[in-house]
């Protein structure tokens, strides 16, 4: 998922609406046993989410109706054989944008799911801000 943020992302933003979004997103994700990562970078939200189909659809509907996201784009919605994430994480690049070409291109084109996935994983690897405890998801009979 990618969307243009309609909230302040500057200094102190974690104490305002941005912090509220992150806290709500982490709670909703862990309550629904979803794993993945959400990043914010240069006015954009990017997210990779894993979980039960119904939980993911409910989560998407909440984002699509949230006034704090401009033009949210669901880039991919496919079943997975195995989760890549064990937690729910949020992050932002430590020093400036992590991928100038991707962010510059966002102004004109919607990126591919692969481009966003790579960017999210790169940012989380170096700019982790918060992370849930590992989720234990039992197989359904």
Structural overview:
By secondary structure, the protein is of the alpha+beta class. It has a single domain, classed as Alpha-Beta Plaits (2-Layer Sandwich). It is built from four helices and six strands, in the order E-H-E-E-H-E-E-H-H-E. The chain has helices at 17-31, 53-64, 100-106, 113-127, and strands spanning 2-5, 35-41, 44-50, 69-73, 88-91, 128-131. A six-stranded mixed beta sheet has the order 4-1-3-2-5-6, sandwiched between helices. The chain is globular, with a radius of gyration of 14 Å. The mean pLDDT is 86.
Give me the secondary-structure topology.
Blueprint: E1 2-5, H1 17-31, E2 35-41, E3 44-50, H2 53-64, E4 69-73, E5 88-91, H3 100-106, H4 113-127, E6 128-131
Parallel strand pairs: 2-5
Antiparallel strand pairs: 1-3, 1-4, 2-3, 5-6
Q: In summary, what is this structure?
A:
The chain is about 35% helix and about 20% strand. It is built from four helices and six strands; from the N terminus they run E-H-E-E-H-E-E-H-H-E.
Pick out its properties.
35% helix, alpha+beta, globular, 141 residues, 22% strand, six-stranded mixed beta sheet, 6 strands, 4 helices, Alpha-Beta Plaits
Beta-strand content estimate: 15-25%
Poorly predicted segments: none
* Number of domain modules: 1
Biggest sheet architecture: 6 strands, mixed
pLDDT averaged residue by residue: 86
- Spell the H/E element sequence: EHEEHEEHHE
Overall CATH class: Alpha Beta
The name of the CATH topology is Alpha-Beta Plaits
């Amino acid at each position: 998922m990618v969307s243009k943020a309609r909230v302040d992302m500057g200094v102190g933003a974690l104490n305002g609406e941005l912090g509220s979004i992150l806290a709500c997103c982490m709670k909703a994700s862990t309550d629904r046993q979803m794993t993945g990562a959400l990043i914010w970078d240069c006015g954009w939200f990017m997210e990779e989410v894993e979980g039960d189909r119904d939980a993911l659809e409910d989560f998407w509907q909440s984002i699509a109706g949230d006034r704090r996201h401009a033009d949210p784009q669901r880039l991919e919605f496919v079943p997975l054989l195995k989760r890549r994430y064990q937690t729910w994480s949020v992050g932002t690049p430590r020093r400036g944008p992590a991928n100038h070409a991707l962010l510059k291109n966002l102004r004109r084109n919607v990126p591919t799911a692969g481009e966003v996935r790579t960017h999210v994983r790169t940012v989380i690897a170096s700019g982790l801000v918060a992370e849930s405890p590992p989720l234990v998801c039992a197989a359904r009979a």
